[in-house]
Task: structure prediction
Amino acid sequence: KMVYVVKEMIKRRIFMKKTVFDLGGMIAGIALLIILLLTSVQLVAFNHSYYRSEYRKLDRPNAIGISEENLMKVTDELLKYLQDRREDLLIKTVINGQERYVFNDREIRHMVDVKDLFLRGYSLRRWCVWIVAACLILLWVFAGKRMWRILARSFIAGATLFLLFILLLIGLLQTDFTRYFNRFHYIFFTNDLWQ
Result:
């Protein structure tokens, strides 16, 4: 009976150890995917060439009454603001032949919320980097060379869950984009300035 009890304790310990390793690998995998997602959003959101291309395609300079050069300067200042490299959005430029402020009070107040959302995204990404690093170090210390097998298995599981979430999100957006666009804003903004 004593041998049976010892065998059961060893089995449970191995199971718990494997579960903890898999969970650590999965957490690292999901954190890595969050890092990649937020970095992808940042690369698009701060890509000047993308804005220039879209402005030209949609003929925004002409519609606004601003030169393309001035529109790009305003865009650059807006992006600096979102990166917390500019204090405010009191930006003047020539629109329809007159120098004036680009953004009205409501737009400026909304952009305070948008900036906060970006800053939270940067913070989340930094935390995820630390989480990935901590998980990798712990796995290396406690699992040694088996870490790579554990990570591969866990990353696949984490990536699968993340992919299923993204597919669900895409499916929801395909059914009624406006509804989920609005829900996003209701979740992340506490006022109606975005409307």
